[in-house]
Amino acid sequence: xxxxxxxxxxxxxxxxxxxxxxxxxxxxxxxxxxxxxxxxxxxxxxxxxxxxxxxxxxxxxxxxxxxxxxxxxxxxxxxxxxxxxxxxxxxxxxxxxxxxxxxxxxxxxxxxxxxxxxxxxxxxxxxxxxxxxxxxxxxxxxxxxxxxxxxxxxxxxxxxxxxxxxxxxxxxxxxxxxxxxxxxxxxxxxxxxxxxxxxxxxxxxxxxxxxxxxxxxxxxxxxxxxxxxxxxxxxxxxxxxxxxxxxxxxxxxxxxxxxxxxxxxxxxxxxxxxxxxxxxxxxxxxxxxxxxxxxxxxxxxxxxxxxxxxxxxxxxxxxxxxxxxxx
Length: 327
Ligand SMILES: [Zn+2]
Known about the structure:
Layout lengths: L8 E7 L3 E8 L4 E8 L6 H19 L4 E8 L2 E3 L4 E5 L4 E4 L1 H9 L3 E5 H12 L8 E6 L3 E7 L2 E2 L31 H5 L1 H12 L7 H9 L3 H25 L3 E5 L7 H14 L7 E4 L6 H13 L11 H4 L5
Parallel strand pairs: 1-4, 4-8, 9-12, 12-13
Antiparallel strand pairs: 1-2, 2-3, 5-6, 6-7, 9-10, 10-11
Helix pairs in contact: 1-2, 3-9, 5-6, 5-7, 6-7, 7-8
The structure holds zinc ion (ZN).
Zinc ion binds next to loops.
Protein name: ROK family protein
Pfam families: ROK
InterPro entries: ATPase_NBD, ROK
């Protein structure tokens, strides 16, 4: 690949439990390079940090040092984005890692650190299903529930950075299933992809692996247990969303993750439920996330461009520019 002398890039990395996804992207959103590496979490938190630092400097080297303007990294767990500190990730075993400082020292470039779901939500806002909207809720319904509230164009996380946890809205605090947070009957315990799969396995007394989409398909095929499990999950989501609409009146709700793999089997009944619960407010558009597994690293590159001094409004890339093979 030849690089024009004036060409500028940023590096974006999405840190997952098992893999790191990295890309080198131009100001117009063209993906110049893509790479996937293991996270090495089995070697401990220090090795994970080293993997990230080395991956970033290798990508920069490949793009040519003088061509790279900034780097962005999306990380899981609790994150203080402003201070650039990875507060805690049970998955990666780290605590209070000053990742922003470490990267800046290692790379000698402007750096942006983002929480993985917020970074993905940021990408959906600029490039995906929430493009053009300033007031939306982004949800990933997967192993847990990740949520990003965007109000007037900015992500809102509250006074302590823990706001917007849609998944931990309690719907059945007395008789609901136990949630990872310790409470009972949170939306996450009722309607995440893994909660749906787990409940079906328990009620159907099966042990084999099954996905949320499989439960939806079984329900559609007339399986009464699957029907019950799926309908209950949709009702919980509809109720949670109705309360969100009552409080914040969003324009759009963008949904990704394992539950969204069920497509119209999720969106149609969910819209119906939401319309039933909402009394006088307009029902927001319910949309499938568009960027899939690429949202994290694309968001990291967008944040890197912002760190390099480019205004967010100039980062409206065309679909053709960034649509590349899934990493
Ligand atoms: Zn909870």
